[in-house]
Amino acid sequence: MTTLEQPAVCTLDCPDTCSLTVTVDSGRITKVRGSDALPLTSGVICNKVAHHSAEFVHGPARLTTPLKRVGPRGTNRFERISWEQALDFIYARVSEVIGSHGPEGVMPLNYAGPHGMLAGDSISLRFFHKLGASQLYRRSMCGGVRSEAWAGTYGLVPGIGPEAAENAKLTIVWGNNATVANLHLVRKIRMSLRKGGKLVVIDTLRTKIAEQADLHIAPRPSTDVLLAFALAVELKRIGAHDRAFIDQHGLGYDAFRARADDWPLEKAAAECGIKADDIRTLARWMADSDPLVIAPGNGLERGRNGGSGIRAAIALPALIGRLNATRGIALGAANSIAKSMA
After folding, report:
1. Could you point out which of 120, 194, 207, 252 has its C-alpha 20 to 30 Å from the C-alpha of 83?
2. Over the stretch 153-199, which tens digit does the pLDDT of each residue have?
3. Shared-domain flag, residues 179 and 319
4. Interacting residues of 116 by C-beta distance below 8 A, sequence separation 6+
5. What pLDDT, in 10s, does the model give residues 249-297?
6. Residue 295 lies in a domain
7. What residue numbers bound the domain in which 21 lies?
């Protein structure tokens, strides 16, 4: 038998995009561990990849050939076909739709896959553009609102990586079950805490990361925008707004402030169902902490005004001039590499 160790990357839907070392014996996976190829991974991976990768790849649920439905929808009747048959079938059906309705009758939908730059709608974007397919919104409902909120606030500017949390004086984890969904962000936060940094968690639930926080604020669902407005008002009251930074880099400050002023601290606290003193404490910590890192999660977008809540929250570092390569918002990393339809 031949045993090999192969470099690899995680294939699961996770923004950490871990680097792996995979042990293969006679063509089968026997062991998976983290590697140092990606510094953020630093040899540490989640349990499901470390202990269940062989089952993912070699288990009975793994599809090894295309399956074609041969019965009514919902009857779970499929038969195996070859890749050549599958490609011919897809070609015939897509051609039929284009012939009847034009190329915009084809609507591609995609998701992030392993979050790599090639997998995340890079090559497919060019293919479907060349085909002339519909350009209706094709992002997923998970993370899509957050991405649009980022683009609507900061455009194509990339945010900072989770590595920045290691040296943060204050990290705010907002609507982010980070222990489950951002393993390596949590590792960096713990490094920060050992250096004397503070951790604030804003989440309706008492998550595991909230149990480790210096302050846990649990607003009512969908009131995050009001909490962000109250923080903006309090930061203004204590003189923390950086007008020089705002005037040089921002647009719409007066309109934002006018909207925020409708929600002073006491009023917002009552609506959010939280203590006014917690808002005061967080605003003071934000004003006094540099570097500051905010790590928003997908939880914020799970509401009717989720996009507004995200935009209000991620505007806060700009108000106090905490935006550069080492401080700000751990979001928008995909904007680091431009994509085009050409």
Report:
1. 120
2. 998 888 898 999 999 999 999 999 999 888 999 999 999 999 999 99
3. yes
4. 9, 17
5. 999 999 999 999 999 999 999 999 999 999 999 999 999 999 999 999 8
6. yes
7. 3-58
- Rounded Cα distance, 29 and 37, in Å: 20
User: Do 33 and 92 reside in the same domain of the chain?
Assistant: no
What pLDDT score was predicted for residue 117?
65
Q: What tokens does 16 get? A: 């950490």
Each as own residue / partner, the long-range contacts of residues 29-35 (CB below 8 Å, 24 or more positions apart, any chain) are 29/53, 29/54, 29/57, 29/58, 30/3, 30/54, 35/7
Distance from the first to the final alpha carbon of the chain: 47
Number of domains comprising the chain: 3
- Predicted structure pTM score: 0.87
199 and 292 in contact (C-beta within 8 Å)?
no
Nearest Cα to 225, choosing from 284, 156, 272, 288? 272
Query: How far are the Cα atoms of 174, 208, 218 from residue 203, in angstroms, in the given order?
Result: 6, 11, 5
Token pair 């792996």: residue: 20
Residues 37 and 80 placed together within one structural domain of the fold? no
Q: Is residue 137 part of a domain?
A: no
